[in-house]
Design a protein that fits this description.
single chain, 107 residues, mainly alpha, 2 helices
């Protein structure tokens, strides 16, 4: 039986000189660097847009907070007036229920 080699033969290239680059790697490296710079530029632009959007949302939220604080102060003032009125009403009701009807007692 005769041995059969199923592996392909090794490529027969001319030996390269040390320090030389093959021509296709330079354009690929330039294209990769350009893509990297474009990606970084897009990332910076989108981060700037996100920061601007978040600043606008923050200003809107602060304005809403201030208006809600004003409304809360108004509601607290109304609640204080209601409490004072309830206390006065309670005092008047207490005086009226504790009052002796002297006209009925004398007659």
């Amino acid at each position: 039986m005769r041995p059969v080699n199923l592996l392909p033969d090794a490529p027969r290239h001319a030996p390269r000189r040390p320090g030389t680059r093959s021509v296709p790697t330079v354009p690929l490296m330039a294209a990769g660097a350009a893509l990297l710079l474009a990606g970084l530029g897009y990332w910076g632009y989108s981060a700037h847009q996100d920061a601007g959007r978040l600043d606008r949302e923050l200003r809107g939220a602060e304005a809403t907070r201030e208006s809600l604080r004003t409304e809360l102060a108004d509601f607290r003032a109304v609640a204080r007036r209601d409490e004072i009125q309830r206390a006065r009403r309670g005092a008047v009701v207490g005086l009226v229920t504790g009052r002796t009807d002297w006209e009925c007692v004398i007659v």
